[in-house]
Each structure stands twice: as structure tokens, then as C-alpha cells.
Amino acid sequence: MILLSSFLHLRPRRCGPFAGLGRGAGTAAGSRRALRVLVDMDGVLADFEGGFLKKFRARYPDKPYIALEDRRGFWVSEQYGRLGPELSEKAISIWESKNFFIELDPLPGAVEAVKQMANLADTDVFICTSPIKKYRYCPYEKYAWVEKHFGPEFLEQIVLTRDKTVVSADLLIDDRPDITGAELNPSWEHVLFTACHNKHLQLKPPSRRLQSWTDDWKAILDSKRLPPGQAA
User: Fold this and answer.
1) Cα(159)–Cα(156) distance, rounded to whole angstroms?
2) Mind listing the pLDDT tens digit for each residue in 223-232?
3) Would you please indicate which residues are annotated as catalytic (active-site) residues?
């Protein structure tokens, strides 16, 4: 497994068309520090659910499936397991297969929004994603997917980790409702990205949602910024 070194203290990079990445590192004394945003990959940038359903139906055309509007719960394999005991393993076999992650389509507006976000002043953006435990294809394909859709410059902005709670940031945009780990009080605010499996959940204040990439994500970022001169 390849992890970014010193991922607990992520350092911004500047290169190529993403010169805006990490502008916070170059801010002058007295200005506000850079806002650090972690963006999940599967279900937030990449259409995991749509890609899974398409390949499941192609591989198992005679098996029952769950339409996207009927998806409930983060774990696809658990819901399929309730349809039939053998369907859980069949579901898992889909995303363990070669070319599953690299062939996922981007969600509408995701690439454009994150590129805009990365070029905002005083903003550091990282793609923070959890690889599956069967790692033969997944880690490589996640890097390849980012390079394909964001360009090679963004490879410096990837964090692969099974535990996102130990990564320091201001915001985490993620479609998983319950993110737990070694750190009981993560530094980031979790903004729930709406997906087919979580749209029915009622969030309690102050929890927030990002409905899609056409939603006002800039307002969410601005709400977390410190006034100039104020320390973190």
C-alpha cells in the first residue's frame, strides 16, 4: 500500500495548471491560513453506485439486483446479502475485479467543481480515499483515475488511508454517514455528500449536506474560513 508520507501533516504542492493548489503555504504574515479540504472519491467524485450496478447486471443477468432508488445503507454487499446469501459475495466480486475503479464515470460536475476549488486562494484540496482490502487493483486504479480526469499534477493531492479520522483538515466531503476511526474527535467537519444510499437520512443540526456539485459548495468552504489575522 502506498501512502503519502507525512499524511498527518499534508503539505501543499504547486505545479502546472494547478498552481492554485496549496496557495495557503505562501500566504503573507497576518493573512488567514489556507483552508484544507478533503474530498472523498467513490460516491463523491466517481460514480461507484452506478458503475457497480451496471457491471453487476452484466455479469449476473439472471440474479436480482437493487435499483439505485432502492439503495439503503452505505454497504452495498450488506443490502445484497439480504436479497440472498450468495449475492453479498457476488457484489464484492464486482469491485474486487480488474478495471472496476478505473472505469467509473465521474459524477456530474465533480471534476469541474474540484478543479475550481483547488484554484481558490488560501485553499488546499486533497482527494482522501479508502482503498479496499483486496489491493491488487484498487490503489493503482485510483491513482490512474485521478490522473485521467484531473491530470498528473493532482497525483500529489491523493491520500490513501483506511482511517480518515487521523488526517488533519477543516472539511471532509464524504458520502459515508458514519466515519469512525482511531481519532474520536477528528479535526474536520464532515459534510455529507448526498448519494442514493443516504438521501433518506435526516441529519441533526449542525450536520450539513452537499446535495450535489451544483449545490453551493463555495458557501460551505467560506463558512469555515477564519478572518485574516486570526490563528487556527
Assistant:
1) 9
2) 999 776 565 5
3) 40, 42
